[in-house]
Amino acid sequence: MTPVLRSYSHDTWQEGGGPARPLRDAATGEVVARLPATGPDPAAMLDHARRVGGPALRALTFTQRAAILKALARHLSDHAAEFAELSTRTGATRRDTAVDVQGGIGTLAVYASKAAAELPDAVVLADGPVEPLGRGGTFAGRHVLAPRLGAAVQINAFNFPVWGMLEKFAPAFLAGMPSVVKPAGPTAYLTELVVRRMTESGMLPEGTLSLLCAGPAGLLEGLTAQDTLSFTGSAATALKLRTHPAVAGRAVPFNAEADSLNCSVLGPDVTADDPEFTLFVDQIVTEMTVKAGQKCTAIRRAFIPAALADAVTEALAERLRRVVVGHPGRPDTDMGPLAGLEQREEVRAAVAGLAAEAKTVFGDPLRVDAAGADPERGAFVSPILLRCDDPSAAAPHEIEAFGPVSTLLPYTGLDEVAAAAARGGGSLAGSIVTADAQVARTLVDGLAPWHGRLLVLNRDDAAESTGHGVAMPQLVHGGPGRAGGGEELGGLRALHHYMRRTAVQGHPGFLAGLA
Ligand code: NAP
Fold first, then answer.
1. Ligand 1 center to 152 CA (angstroms)
2. Residues 252 and 278 in one domain
3. Ligand 1 atom 14, closest CA
4. Is residue 490 predicted with pLDDT exceeding 90?
5. Greatest distance between any 2 Cα atoms in the chain
6. Is 463 found in the same domain as 500?
7. Pair (44, 147) in one structural domain
8. 467/500 same-domain check
9. Which ligand 1 atom is nearest residue 260's CA?
């Protein structure tokens, strides 16, 4: 009998109710766990977090919270092998697990060490200097940041069941807010395991972490301005949450990280013999195949000089032919399956939409060989490369295929690239592959207003580059418009989402001692 996932509420594991739906192994279709339709009462869960978790966290200083996170990161590292084993069932290869599991624990550790080094041993943060407001020097103002008094509700996507939770939990915990986590259904069993290990550690004060393994019904209705709502997922769900009467009506602080049509640009200076050509091709293949392309930051649109279009197409097709698609547990597998059959149907539908305006130059969305697995029972799909030579086509700038899918878009002049990239409506990550600093500068200036993060890649920084798709805890993750309009990570600035910034006016002597 497969386990039915439980929720963690009131510091105990509780059973849910209603019909439990099967959550399947991405590669074999076997049932891994079952997810109940309903969990413990979300209103009571939020109440416990606010009444017990919030005060317990606010009684600790930033330094004390950082010490707990540091110990927690070490504790989770001790369990990394157990997480990796279960991660395989989500379709993750060893490389994919490194991004999700080790990447998540690493994010926790970075937050712990940055907070220990950069935050005071205090409970309130000063934001900026004391600003004189009177000629006589007796009256001034200063901004302070104090934790909000409610619960930090975190709704996550299926593709990063570990990283997605920890990158939100860490700044909320440091800021002084208890987390209420709702993982996405398909991979909730991995989030549940990590939360079990976090709570068993005994390191977390009571009420500071709750987990809802069930549908989201009832989670939003009681939110107030002292709570926060952080969301990662599709743009369609982001819109529903943003306009929810409780969220909009009570001005609940809301952050969204949604899908985006990220781009990479190959500079016009690059020839087929330059190292940048190979870097570009390698990067596209990496972004298509890591997590089988189920990364919100993956390259969906590749802008290439028209003169190099055939050379890039051939080089990419040649590289993609060598990608071994197979069971994620096999050491020779380059790319595992999608998270589930439902996701594969969505990818196939999106590819059909793209193919209406672009030519498929590699891969068949309906056929793939899978090493060590049945390609039909598992959610396997071939890498799909498309090419669209029509600059007026709309589909590549509008349709996100959340899988191993990219479209090549030849351009003739650098001046068209920024405008074409902007047709994506706002993206999380972009990259520029060029050895020419002037090309890089022109594109950074043109792309920055529409992007959360930009990578300039060339022979000088490639060896140490963290790559196009990897969100770093030190840097902003988020993007304008379609990408959700939010900001996460970006170092300790991420704490601000969980704190209220208040201007305090008074005598400068009093203000100086505030934080
Ligand atoms: P999704 O369908 O929007 O679901 C995301 C989360 O929202 C899930 O936990 C889901 O719960 C929950 N949800 C759905 N409807 C809800 C509602 N009415 N009220 C409250 N919660 C609700 O997205 P997905 O399919 O899991 O994730 C794939 C998408 O996420 C892709 O488009 C990808 O680009 C995007 N993504 C973005 C980022 C980023 O950082 N920007 C990262 C990863 C993924 P259930 O699972 O229970 O339905």
1. 17
2. no
3. 237
4. no
5. 80
6. no
7. yes
8. no
9. 34
Q: Using one digit for the tens of pLDDT, what is the confidence trace for 209-261?
A: 999 999 999 999 999 999 999 999 999 999 999 999 999 999 999 999 998 99
HEC profile of 42-62: HHHHHHHHHHHHHHHHHCCCH
Q: What is the tens place of the pLDDT at every residue in 360-404?
A: 999 999 999 999 999 999 999 999 999 999 999 999 999 999 999
CA distances from 224 to 129, 190, 220, 253 (A): 30, 30, 9, 9
Q: What is the rounded distance in angstroms from the CA atom of residue 132 to the CA atom of residue 135?
A: 8
143-171 pLDDT per residue, tens = 999 999 999 999 999 999 999 999 999 99
| 253 lies in the same domain as 142 | yes
**Number of domains observed in the structure of the chain:** 2
Whether pLDDT at 515 is above 90: no
Q: Whose CA is nearest to atom 28 of ligand 1?
A: 233
Decide if 50 is inside a domain.
Answer: yes
Residue 272 · residue 305 · CB < 8 Å:
no
Q: How far is CA 136 from the centre of its chain?
A: 50
Q: What CATH number should be reported for the domain holding residue 57? A: 3.40.605.10
Owning domain of residue 253: 14-259+488-512
Strands (E), 73-216: 125-132, 140-147, 152-155, 179-182, 209-211
